[in-house]
Here is the input.
Amino acid sequence: MTILPIRTLGDPVLKEICRDVESFDGSLRRLYEDMLETMYEAPGVGLAAPQVGLALRFFVFDPGASGGFGPGAVANPVLSEREGEQLEDEGCLSIPNLYHPTTRAMRVRVTGQDLDGKAVSLVGEGLVARIFQHELDHLNGFLFIDRLPDSERKHVLAEIRDLDLLKPVRWRREAGP
Ligand code: ZN
Here is the structure.
């Protein structure tokens, strides 16, 4: 298993609308194992393929002991049956050290395919529902900060400018042509 570099805010792959997984073979299983290892090492509870540079509709998750199930992965996920609402701190491995209260549905169903291409249908509540919604957003080029109301997003972007994460981007801009 390999720990993969995690792409961070500003990387164009995080803005891509990902393409469907079409091959359910050994390379998808290797990707699953590498992404899980990468997620555990970070540490995190979910990781989407674009975060490791692959614009593929695929994510892994493991909410830990409290989540009820996992680790697992879903290919070509579709979200349905959104119910209720929750407002909890959310973070993202692609925006290190930033957490912000983010509204999500309390309960969702995700349908898609497992590593063998077989149909799966998972119902997640609370943290698991939050992970599903967060990871699915990644596959459509959205980050959790894109889900915040405009006024909060402005504050969060200001906070991000103060983090080390974006310093290289600023430097490039200042040094650019
Ligand atoms: Zn994320």
Remarks:
- The chain is about 30% helix and 30% strand.
